[in-house]
Amino acid sequence: MREELNQGLIDFLQASPTPFHATSSIAQALQGAGFKALNESESWHTEPGGRYYVTRNDSSIIAFQLGHKSLAEHGLRLVGAHTDSPCLRVKPQPELQRQGFWQLGVEVYGGALLAPWFDRDLSLAGRVTFSRDGRIESRLIDFKLPIAVIPSLAIHLNREANQGWAINPQTELPPILAQIASEESPDFRALLADQLSREHGLLADVVLDFELSFYDTQAAAVIGLHGDFIAGARLDNLLSCFAGLQALLRAAPEESCVLVCTDHEEVGSASMCGADGPFLEQVLRRLLPEEEAFQRCINRSLLISADNAHGVHPNYSDKHDGNHGPKLNAGPVIKINNNQRYATSSETAGFFRHLCLESEVSVQSFVTRSDMGCGSTIGPITASQLGVRTVDIGLPTFGMHSIRELAGSQDLAQLVKVLSAFYSSPTLP
């Protein structure tokens, strides 16, 4: 099972270079398992025993199965994650022509670790909006091939590079696409129109706009002398999306379960399709339109917010509290912060710890050093939006927000095992 899940994750990462593609990948897996697509603009007809999913903005997805028990009486088992990762996004008018090179202007999305983006083979993917025969349409595109690079400046020209290097994202990050003659005028929209033709076999009249991200073409892989690690891009947080999806597909049919994977977590989640927006509440209210039943259901529900945790790095162990340094391949991590950067309480932590014990899954704890700031995730946001009890957990990783992150190869199977137990649990605290 472990090897199968790890290969499934690698394939999922390869197919999901952007939140749009991740959402499409999840939707395809759900369709293959018999989940029915719902459209927010249409009436819904759901029934006990049914399995459904709905997307918003092509970059967020909520999937749910309805058991035969009353939602108001038995609540929901929810798992939340996010589809976005820090990256370089192409600007609206990106064409740059300097020293005979065609480059694209980019904007840093989220808190990206910038140095690893240099000297990587980059490709480009995302969503393109265009007009065709008088209609406005959108399609996902993925160049797949390495079409760009951001070369480092040689150390001979930057002797202080190894003493600390403040990267200027405006001047140092535009990737190089090609060499061009001085009389040429690069047209990025024409390039996109050509890609639409090659990938989808359609001719766009005008490319109107786009949301495109560069990504590293090196595939994720199991690495290490003994295959101890998984290295790859976007482990934060597609690793959790994939684990939640696998658990939902294994869920006992008697229970009502929800998987919510939302966009824009890396920039605060405040959007129409982010965790700080109305998406989840609006979906749940369509299932429970009567106010008292909705409130009773939420009160009986529990959310596991799954987002990667910081593993204790052997070269930087002083960055962790001495008693709270999660180790790779030692199981999922309960994340705790008394200033509510995480939404975990003793009750929800105790329940998750009990689930792990019952499932024979190792469990760890993480608390940030008291002299360091603490990051956050969708857990506190969703808890404050819905009033749902929440535990923040995640798998330990290295290099979070790098272009290539590292996780333990044994941990994914453990997370899927405990999330599957959660979805099938007949009782909640």
Automatic annotation (TrEMBL):
It comes from the Bacteria. One of its GO terms (biological process) is proteolysis. Its cofactor is Zn(2+). It holds the Pfam family Peptidase_M18. It is an enzyme of class 3 (hydrolase). The keyword Metal-binding applies. InterPro entries: M18_aminopeptidase_2, Peptidase_M18, Peptidase_M18_dom2. Coiled coil: none annotated. Keywords: Aminopeptidase, Hydrolase, Metal-binding, Metalloprotease, Protease, Zinc. Its EC number is 3.4.11.-. Zn(2+) binds at H82, H156, H401. One of its GO terms (cellular component) is cytoplasm. GO terms for molecular function: aminopeptidase activity; metallopeptidase activity; zinc ion binding. Belongs to the peptidase M18 family. PANTHER family: ASPARTYL AMINOPEPTIDASE (PTHR28570:SF3). This is Probable M18 family aminopeptidase 2. It comes from Pseudomonas saudiphocaensis. The lineage of its organism: Bacteria, Pseudomonadati, Pseudomonadota, Gammaproteobacteria, Pseudomonadales. The gene is apeB.
